[in-house]
């Protein structure tokens, strides 16, 4: 059987295998049931495949399993009934062995896992969430993180991940803002390329490589009103220049899998858009991987979008548009056979999709090495190297928004420190969504990070009070919080939001700060998938608690832990020091302490524009010049601009020049600027280059980020930073919908954020 001959080209092996398959076996390759339902674990630890899995395998096979090792409240996999890193690898081997040995052709299963900030399995390293990662402005660091995530996931048999998220955010009220890198397409594209290179490595069949799945294709971050899955209203020019750019760059970098988005664009659902999935993805970009839907997306074609009158029509619409696999749904399994018999699809349509799935399995080496090494999983997952990497990513992603009077860094010898707020000691609140259950002590909270930094005196010098919850109007914890604050010399307020689901951890006694296991569901989730908001204010009574503590006249530092921007004018006006940590992961508390006490000089920069109030939305920095007039009540200036972030040192920009100053349309110029660390501390600066097209055949953004570089400078050190500006930085989508560099004047601005910097003009001649 040629398909089992590893020396043959993949095309020959696919062709041979396809010729041997029945229609039922082909359809089986396009379905992906829930993996955690494919096995059971006995009290003695023995893993067995379920009867349901056996039946589906006997009926034609299973191409892939989703989230086999996923653990969270949805899967009902807990620390008690879940699998250790070694057991997880052993379980995947049991399932894989049964599939190969009990199917006619022995086709291996593709195990797909969630890994947006680490493998969503028990014991895996929990890295910072993508919004924190984006705020590092350090794609190379993210590439290293992705290598670690790939190594941990593949060691347990996971061969594909449903990340990175490449959605470009328009409205931060959207609950999935936390899963993105930010609002700028160039920045997202840089992290997209890093993700593909880091996850997939040099070759897909390596023991530490993972198939990257780009999602959500496309326009998902531009939904109406910031509501998850709502319609998207945009023209093709904006779609290509903004939303599709990161996907195109990732495909050019070698991405081999794409996930369709739930939303529609101008009336056409992405899951049935042949324009997106065939004309753009395959014909224009040359993509040769496979396309998978989001969970239940084909169902929406019949019940939601209502572009299909039957299940057969829905399945056919998706398949003929270019979908190759259905994630966790039943539409392909139930309706594809009927769709074939009724003439909605042809066997060639079916063979095309199946061939793409089989080709990917060959590329991943699943036919030749279908099993994983449990001993390696035990060594790699959650290792010290990865934990230290998680701490570094968190430290580089935390943004210093305000430091009036140099309140920060704190003096380690400061007397007593009160750590107050609902996020001061709430482990799951600082991890974000798509997180597995965590054993006690695994997560370093803000309180624990400060205690560890202070050391042996922490029991007497570090005071703690939760004060209140994220949500709810209970003030019963105010008195204890105020008492702690009154006794302290400085107060650290850990407030914000949460996308933590209910892990059965109980609640916190607001009067004492002690954990209380009540058996009742306790979740403060106000962000995450499907959790969209109409405002950006703090929820509950958090602001009221902060205002009461402020009245004591003590130095106060606010640490935001949250998944979307917060608009609280009172805090910006009255609190002298503010840190934005987003969701900083399992080592977040240590990273925050490192910054609070000055061991780490903050270098994070915003990847979202933070408005003064929600009524300014949308307020993305790269808005068109023709954005209209100001509001009656307020202007269009943000509270904190895109790219913004403070440091404990100062940076000076000078000697900006562009050479040559005039270039042809296909030429390029070198932009150079000297950056000097003129302050007292070593630190890293994010040097940002923006381009403004002063006159064009179509309307253009007022400015657009086109390059950036994070540079480390010792105190007093200067360095010349060089960028190349050429067609890629200057082109636009013209009236004929083709990319072109038009003659004319361009303003090049280089500086520390989207508002400040040195400027010089560059001329393009036709």
From TrEMBL:
Please give the InterPro entries that the UniProt record associates with this protein: Cellulose_Degrad_GH3, Fn3-like, GH, Glyco_hydro_3_C, Glyco_hydro_3_C_sf, Glyco_hydro_3_N, Glyco_hydro_3_N_sf, Ig-like_fold
* EC number(s) given by UniProt: 3.2.1.21
Tell me the PANTHER family matching this sequence: BETA-XYLOSIDASE (PTHR30620:SF123), PERIPLASMIC BETA-GLUCOSIDASE-RELATED (PTHR30620)
Q: Which SMART domains match?
A: Fn3_like (SM01217)
Which GO molecular function entries does the Swiss-Prot or TrEMBL record give?
A: beta-glucosidase activity
UniProt key word Hydrolase: yes
Q: Where is the Fibronectin type III-like domain?
A: 685-754
Q: Does the keyword field hold Hydrolase? A: yes
Which Pfam families does the UniProt entry name for this protein? Answer: Fn3-like (PF14310), Glyco_hydro_3 (PF00933), Glyco_hydro_3_C (PF01915)
- Protein's name according to its UniProt entry: Beta-glucosidase
Q: Which UniProt keywords apply?
A: Glycosidase, Hydrolase
């Amino acid at each position: 059987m040629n398909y089992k001959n590893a020396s043959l080209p993949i095309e020959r092996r696919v062709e041979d295998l396809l010729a041997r398959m029945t229609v039922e076996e082909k359809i089986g390759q396009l379905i992906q049931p829930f993996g955690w339902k494919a096995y059971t674990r006995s009290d003695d630890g023995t893993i067995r495949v379920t009867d349901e899995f056996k039946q589906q395998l006997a009926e034609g096979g299973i191409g892939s399993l989703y989230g086999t090792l996923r653990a969270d409240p949805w899967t009902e996999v807990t620390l008690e009934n879940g699998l250790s890193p070694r057991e997880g690898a052993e379980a995947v081997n049991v399932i894989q062995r049964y599939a190969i040995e009990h199917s006619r052709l022995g086709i291996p299963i593709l195990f797909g896992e969630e890994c947006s900030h680490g493998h969503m399995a028990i014991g895996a390293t929990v890295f910072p969430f993508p919004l924190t990662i984006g705020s590092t402005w350090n794609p190379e660091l993210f590439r290293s993180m992705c290598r670690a995530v790939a190594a941990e996931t593949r060691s347990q048999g996971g061969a594909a991940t449903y990340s990175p998220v490449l959605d470009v955010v328009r409205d931060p009220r959207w609950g999935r803002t936390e899963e993105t890198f930010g609002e700028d397409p160039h920045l997202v594209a840089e992290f997209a390329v890093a993700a593909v290179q880091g996850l997939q490595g040099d070759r897909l069949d390596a023991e530490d490589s993972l198939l990257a799945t780009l999602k959500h294709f496309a326009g998902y971050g531009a939904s109406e009103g910031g509501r998850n899955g709502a319609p998207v209203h945009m023209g093709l020019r904006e779609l290509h220049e903004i939303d599709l750019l990161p996907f195109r760059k990732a495909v050019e970098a070698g991405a081999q899998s794409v996930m369709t988005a739930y939303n529609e664009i101008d009336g056409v659902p992405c899951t049935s858009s042949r324009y997106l999935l065939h004309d753009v993805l395959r014909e224009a970009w040359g993509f040769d991987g496979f396309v998978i839907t989001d969970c239940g997306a084909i169902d929406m074609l019949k019940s939601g979008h209502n572009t299909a009158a039957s299940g057969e029509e829905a399945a056919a619409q998706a398949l003929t548009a270019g979908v190759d696999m259905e994630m966790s749904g039943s539409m392909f399994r139930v309706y594809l056979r009927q769709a074939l018999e009724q003439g909605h699809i042809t066997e060639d349509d079916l063979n095309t999709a199946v061939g793409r799935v089989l080709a990917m399995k060959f590329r991943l080496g699943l036919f030749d090495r279908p099993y994983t090494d449990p001993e390696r999983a035990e060594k790699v997952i959650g290792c010290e190297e990865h934990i230290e990497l998680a701490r570094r990513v968190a430290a580089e992603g935390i943004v210093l928004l305000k430091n009036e009077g140099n309140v920060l860094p704190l003096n380690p010898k400061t007397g007593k420190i009160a750590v107050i707020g609902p996020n001061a000691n709430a482990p799951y609140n600082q991890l974000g969504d798509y997180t597995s259950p965590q054993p006690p002590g695994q997560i370093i909270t803000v309180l624990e990070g400060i205690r560890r930094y202070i050391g042996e005196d922490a029991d007497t010098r570090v005071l703690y009070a939760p004060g209140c919850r994220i949500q709810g109007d209970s003030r019963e914890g105010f008195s204890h919080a105020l008492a702690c604050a009154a006794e302290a010399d400085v107060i650290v307020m850990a407030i914000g939001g949460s996308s933590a689901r209910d892990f059965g951890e109980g609640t916190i006694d607001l009067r004492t700060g002690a954990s209380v296991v009540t058996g009742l569901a306790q979740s403060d989730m106000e962000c995450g998938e499907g959790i969209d908001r109409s405002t950006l204010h703090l929820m509950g009574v958090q602001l009221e608690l902060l205002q009461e503590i402020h009245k004591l006249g003590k130095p106060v530092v606010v640490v935001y832990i949250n998944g979307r921007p917060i608009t609280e004018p009172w805090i910006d006006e009255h609190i002298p020091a503010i840190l934005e940590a987003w969701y900083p992961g399992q080592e977040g508390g240590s990273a925050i302490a490192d910054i609070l006490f000055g061991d780490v000089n903050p270098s994070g920069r915003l990847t979202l524009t933070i408005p003064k109030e929600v009524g300014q939305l949308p307020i993305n920095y790269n808005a068109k010049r023709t954005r209209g007039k100001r509001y009656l009540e307020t202007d269009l200036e943000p509270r904190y601009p895109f790219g913004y972030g403070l440091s404990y040192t100062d940076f000076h920009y000078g000697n900006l020049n562009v050479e040559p100053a005039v270039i042809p349309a296909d030429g390029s110029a070198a932009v150079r600027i000297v950056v000097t660390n003129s302050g007292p501390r070593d630190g890293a600066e994010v040097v940002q280059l923006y381009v403004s097209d002063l006159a064009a055949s179509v309307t253009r953004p007022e400015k657009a980020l086109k390059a950036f570089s994070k540079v480390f400078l010792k105190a007093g050190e200067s360095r010349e930073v060089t960028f190349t500006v050429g067609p890629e930085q200057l082109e636009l989508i013209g009236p004929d919908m083709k990319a072109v560099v038009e003659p004319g004047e361009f303003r090049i601005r280089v500086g520390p954020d989207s508002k400040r910097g040195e400027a010089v003009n560059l001329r393009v001649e036709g």
